[in-house]
Amino acid sequence: MSGIRDRSEVRRFPASRRFVTAGLAAGRKMATVHGIFSADVTVARDRLDQMTPPRPTFTAFVVACVGRAAAMHPTVHAYRDWRGRLIVPHQVDVATLVEVTTADGSFPLAHLIRDTGSRSVVDIGEELRNIKAAPTSGRSGMLMARVAPLMVRVPGAVRLFYLVLARSPRMRTMAGTVAVSSIGMFGGGGGYAIGQPIVATLNVYVGGMSERPHVVDGEIVVRRLLDVTVSVDHRIVDGAPAARFAADLRRLLESGDVLD
Fold it and tell me: Which residues have a Cβ under 8 Å from the Cβ of 149 and sit 6 or more positions away?
């Protein structure tokens, strides 16, 4: 129609986003099932608030809880290698998102936190603060800054990267076997997050946290409840092991024992 001006802005599609889209395409091959629950994190939240600054973030606390629970149930983050064998890791390496600033704008960098099943919340929190301040100090940030711009210039290179990542034990040790996404930090109130997995067998999505009525010792009181989604690849993990993992994860979130 004449007289209508195009107000659109044309931007270059960031190289970092190409990795995201290729990862989502790889994740569509998984048979993902989701379980949702709410955890009463009032005790843990109060204990975090009482800690001496610099306090660990709530994300660090959740990562520690996920690491402990996965260590109790290692089959929930197992995967298959090139020969179809089941690889069950003895160490829980969690990839979690850290929002960083790049030349193309903000980007959720997947940073790998190793051996979360035995590390303290304070230690994990310090590592996340350091990555937030200096993204290229970690392997993921360094690769994204140096390698990603080169890979996207080669047709099919990013897709091949995720194909190898899905079945290579060596690549898994570099990328982790568990993913944690803290979606709830970006908005107030409760709510569950249902995400699209990439290659990790176990994905934990932290939704919203809000004050709601809750029954404690037979009485209705106001507590802080956190909405959590646990997603697993049903090709590898059955419902019963996933449920046992979720039960232990909720217990750790509610008790705050990882803060001891």
Answer: 15
- Output b/e per residue, 62-99; b: 16+ Cβ within 10 A: bbbbbbbbbbebbbbbbbeeeeeeeeebebbbbbbbbe
- CA–chain centroid gap for 5, Å, is 42
Bridge partners for 232 per DSSP: 33, 202
CA dist., res. 43 & res. 47, Å (int) = 6
131-144 pLDDT, tens digit each: 988 887 777 766 66
CB 246 within 8 A of CB 35: yes
Q: Is 137 helix (H, G, I), strand (E, B) or coil?
A: helix
The residue with tokens 């996933």 is: 242
Number of other residues whose CB lies within 10 A of the CB of residue 51: 13
Which residue reads 């089959």 in tokens?
A: 75
Residue 221: φ, ψ to 5°: -130, 165
Q: How far apart are CA 70 and CA 169, in angstroms?
A: 18
> Could you tell me if 201 and 3 are in contact, meaning their C-beta atoms sit under 8 angstroms apart?
no
Decide: 216 and 228 in contact? Cβ < 8 Å: no
pLDDT tens-digit profile of 63-112? Answer: 999 999 999 999 999 999 989 999 999 899 999 988 777 666 676 788 99
Question: Do 55 and 82 form a contact (C-beta atoms < 8 A)?
Answer: no
| Residues forming a β-bridge with 233 | 32
Tell me the Cα Rg of the chain. 20
Measure the CA–CA gap between 223 and 228, rounded to whole angstroms: 16
Handedness of CA 171, 103, 186, 29 (dihedral sign): negative
Dihedral pair phi/psi, residue 177, rounded to 5°? -120, -5
Indicate the SS3 state at residue 158.
helix
